[in-house]
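Peroxidase (Brassica oleracea var. oleracea), 324 aa
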Amino acid sequence: MAEQSPLKPLSSLFLLLLTLLTTTAESRLTTDFYSNSCPRFLDIVRDTISDKQITHPTTAAAVIRLFFHDCFPNGCDASILVSSTAFNVAERDSSINLSLPGDGFDVIVRAKTALELACPQTVSCSDIISVATRDLLVTVGGPYYPVHLGRRDSRTSKASLLADLLPLPSSPMAKTIRQFESRGFTVQEMVALSGAHSIGFSHCKEFVGLVGRNSTGYNPRFAQALKKACSSYPKDPTISVFNDIMTPNKFDNMYFQNIPKGLGLLESDHGLYSDPRTRPFVDLYARDQDRFFKDFAKAMQKLSLYGVKTGRRGEVRRRCDAIN
């Protein structure tokens, strides 16, 4: 009988500990946390995000991306919202976060301003991000999931703490998988979360080099269209392309249907289909939207509980962009 690798029991123990930590975090939070202290909390957030989404339809994608960039590195604590000072470079000014759309930050600030008028220094910015993300997802056709509340905001935000913690579009799939697994997420949960690319856009700089190499992963006509769309990119780095060219403003499973056809935009999209560990889940979600929605909702809820701060471990900021 072959000997069991000593790393496997350690890996299983690590995943178990992360699961227990997530369960503990969830037990400290409740879905009705503000029912007495700020009873109109959900209504205020919903009204704010609805108004913003109507006038700026890319808001939903912007906030979902903001949520991921806040939660994935070091936990959901609104550290992404803090502005830099003369003495500190905050997370939002790290190189990987410079392309985060301004609409995401703006709608959270608007919601916080309205909540401060109704319930001064009661609702945390991290709770606002989590609820706004869920509600905006629903507005563009995505699944609903319960959001547990009671998070506190981080007292620190340092760009230096983000080193190599967020997946890059150009990262090898093996590295991306390791990044997710180190946070207690399975390969299937990683693929489900990648479905957030169903909406939103990416700047040409994220993929133009790959297209230029005539990668066989692209549909030839799609590759030519991308080259044309990005032809002025050197002069205008703001040029971007929808992540899902078929239904760019609707959250659905078309993203997964696109990938096998060579219509994935980013290198990481193609990697999902070329890697045998992730390909079966791409095929599953391409043919079963209900299953994708179910798994995406569960993974988003799990991510919203990752590394949360409660009680004295954090604070409720008066302004989301500044530590109290």
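The radius of gyration is 20 Å. The chain has 13 helices and two strands. ok done for today
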